[in-house]
Amino acid sequence: MERGESVGDTPRPWQSYHTVYTNAKAGMDGVDKEKVQRIVYEMSKGSKYFENEERKEAFIGQKIENIRAQCEKLSEIDKSHFQRVADKRIIELEATRDLSRIWLHVDMDAFYAAVETLDSPSLRGKPMAVGSMSMISTANYEARRFGVRAAMPGFIARKLCPELIFIPTDFKKYTYYSGLTRKVFQKYDPNFVACSLDEAYLDITDACKERGISSGEIAEELRTSIYEETGLTCSAGIAPNRLLAKVCSDINKPNGQFVLPNDRMAVMTFISSLPIRKIGGIGKVTEHILRDCLGIYTCEHMLQKSALLCALFSRSSADFFLCVGLGIGKTDTPEAKLRKSISNERTFSATSDEGFLYQKLAELADMLSTDMQNECLRGRTLTLKLKTASFEVRTRAVTLQNYIFSREDILKHASKLLKAELPISLRLIGLRVSHFNEDKMGSPFDAKQKTLAEFINESGKHVVDSSSFGLSSICDDHFKIGTATGLPIDNHETQSHDSREPSNCNQLSDCNQSEKFGGNSLDTVNKRANSMDDETASSSNLKEESLWVDEYKCSLCGIELPPSFVDERQEHFDFHLAERLQKEESGSEPRIVPKPSSTGLFIMTELETATNRRSTSHLRKTSNTFPLMSFL
């Protein structure tokens, strides 16, 4: 984090401290930004929160420096090449533009705060926030004028606004009012998409045609119906796609609406001067990278810097940025998807009181069990999320042989995970259940169906401890390498996984000692791996140049890298070499999965077994960059 910014001879370090403050929230346009930054800085300095924010700022700074280094490597020939790539991609994306649908985004105005005001009219006109001194869930518009907003620690909010009133959260109340609004939504679009308790997307194309009225009239009527049904106000945005509709709903907040016509020229004019932070999916981290590295401030700049975006970012990220510059978003109604997981979490003041922590865990288990029973769900993987007093986030998980849903079962296994972490000071606990009892087709789970371990044990031919299959304690997050924040989705929270974790990969290594597949023991596989050293050395001498077509494109996967990216090309070559060697060893499809990083390069998921990890270790003889790491 840069420090030492000043005006004249007076140092003003808070000017580079961007934590918490943003004017992207409705009702904060007239806030004294420097005053808010100064108070946030002074109130936070020296705290664990401040230290964590400094670590995140340093991480962002390193990402920015890495991208700048990549920019400097690009020659004029490289830039010309990627400009042609960008121009071609823009034409392809433009061909997908759909102006035939009308989307409406509804956003309730300061929803939690409005519900509390409706319940207690004496709060009307007074600055109020829902939450506590630890953290705020939302703030009403009177409080936002002081710089108070959601996701701000309450003690800082009180400093900004001494008259601020705190109201504890009541999710049962918010859920009730959310249900009332959804009954109204269904009248206009039975397939509306609810994003949260307080916002939703509606395709009102058919409603406009059937009733012969304009989209603006539909929006006005819907907002009136919601007010009559609930006593709450909302804002609406109407546009040709969901991306723009969400932006439009924020323009005339609170209790207003904005209509963007289904016309290409109107869309391009609207998007040209729009700040990139107004776009859903571009948060603080992405904004800093685009602004500080590439000088991108508005959506129009996305098209002006299209060559750099295609050169430095993955295909999916570059496409997202170009779509933003073109004002192109999704217009089809999302298909209903089976739920992958269900979770809840609660934040509180940092404490190491074990009794309190177990009490919170019991409350979460009770709520989670109720939610699962309401949706007729049972799951096998239970994940415990913890945020320490120093804002470090940890996840611990266990995968069970049986499907669970009861409060007792959830609490029993969650308590074991928490006990392994004690003593510890926490400020947040969360629980998540996944791996539900439905197959890919959504068929109900057959309770009589045996697990793999049960089948082998009952066969009498092999007696294998269930832990050797990784059923006892596995966390999905263990198989990830690199700490890059994927773009374009912004990540505000740094994940940190403790190497002391009981379910770490070290445990998998021990478990796999007894594994046998196809008659080959782990020792046998390792001997085979060692015997391949000479072959590896010779493989590394393959002409790497033959991998690249037209100097830029990889002939195996299609990714494009400039010739000047020497280290990155070597790393990419190592990736395909590792993929090939793993395939030769396993005799099946490789399990290394390339993932595009936010520089357009690859990061790699860690091999899923100790066997595969060992079989690639000899690659370090040919390259000191394996396993592949993200450059951000």
Could you outline the blueprint of secondary structure elements for this entry?
Layout: E1 6-7, E2 10-11, H1 33-44, H2 48-73, H3 76-94, E3 103-108, H4 111-119, E4 128-131, E5 136-139, H5 141-144, H6 154-160, E6 165-167, H7 171-188, E7 193-196, E8 199-203, H8 205-211, H9 215-230, E9 234-239, H10 242-248, E10 257-259, H11 264-272, H12 284-294, H13 299-304, H14 306-312, H15 315-326, E11 341-351, H16 354-374, E12 379-388, E13 393-404, H17 407-419, E14 426-436, H18 452-459, H19 505-511, E15 516-517, E16 520-521, H20 522-531, H21 533-539, E17 548-549, E18 553-554, H22 566-586, E19 594-596, E20 602-604, H23 610-615
Parallel strand pairs: 4-6, 9-10
Antiparallel strand pairs: 1-2, 3-8, 3-9, 4-5, 7-8, 11-14, 12-13, 12-14, 15-16, 17-18, 19-20
What do these coordinates show?
- The N terminus and C terminus are likely disordered.
- Strand 7 and strand 8 form a beta hairpin.
- This protein is α+β, with helices and mostly antiparallel strands.
- 42% of the residues lie in helices and 15% in strands.
- It is globular, with a radius of gyration of 27 Å.
- The strands form seven sheets. It has a five-stranded mixed β-sheet, sandwiched between helices.
- Helix 1 packs across helix 6 and helix 7 runs antiparallel to helix 9.
Q: Characteristics of this structure?
A:
632 residues; 5-stranded mixed beta sheet; globular; disordered C terminus
